[in-house]
Amino acid sequence: QVRLVESGGGLVQAGGSLRLSCAPSGRSFSTHGMAWFRQAPGKEREFVAGISWNAGSRLYADSVKGRFTISRDNAKNTVLLQMNSLKPEDTAVYYCAARPSMSPTLRTEVYEYGYWGQGTQVTVSS
């Protein structure tokens, strides 16, 4: 069974940092585009950051640009999201997602991703 497993969420004060990790199991995702989405209570799931299969392309939502960094290590089958200068509005459940693609073009819509993790809660207190 193919699964994406997120970890690293938690409670942090505004201005702090967290690092989320996504570890796919059941298969390699080295030929997949990977992304992080988030969903706050009462809001739709939204794109946060994406990275192409070979890390040649990265894309960020305007709201996190300059504060978050997405990276991947295909040898370890791991995708990371380093989150710095966190704000209360970053509070949400964060999801890792994958789609089979070796294109440098990154997708930002939920329906374009076929594999999802169960999510990890990030709470930023003011």
What does it look like?
- The protein has 126 residues and is mainly β.
- The protein is built from no helices and eleven strands.
- The strands form two sheets. Strands 2, 4, 5, 6, 9, 10 and 11 form a seven-stranded mixed beta sheet that branches. The chain has a four-stranded antiparallel beta sheet with strand order 1-3-8-7, with no helix packed on it.
- The radius of gyration is 13 Å and the shape is globular.
Short recap of the structure:
The protein is mostly beta strands and 126 residues long. 0% of the residues lie in helices and 50% in strands.
Defining key terms:
4-stranded antiparallel β-sheet; 7-stranded mixed β-sheet; 11 strands
Cα-to-Cα separation, first versus last residue: 40 Å
Order of helices and strands: EEEEEEEEEEE
Q: Enumerate the spans where pLDDT stays under 50 for 5 or more consecutive residues.
A: none
User: Strand tally, please?
Assistant: 11
Residue-averaged pLDDT: 95
Structural class: mainly beta
Please work out how many helical segments DSSP would assign. 0
Estimate the helix proportion, in percent. under 10%
> What would you call the shape?
globular
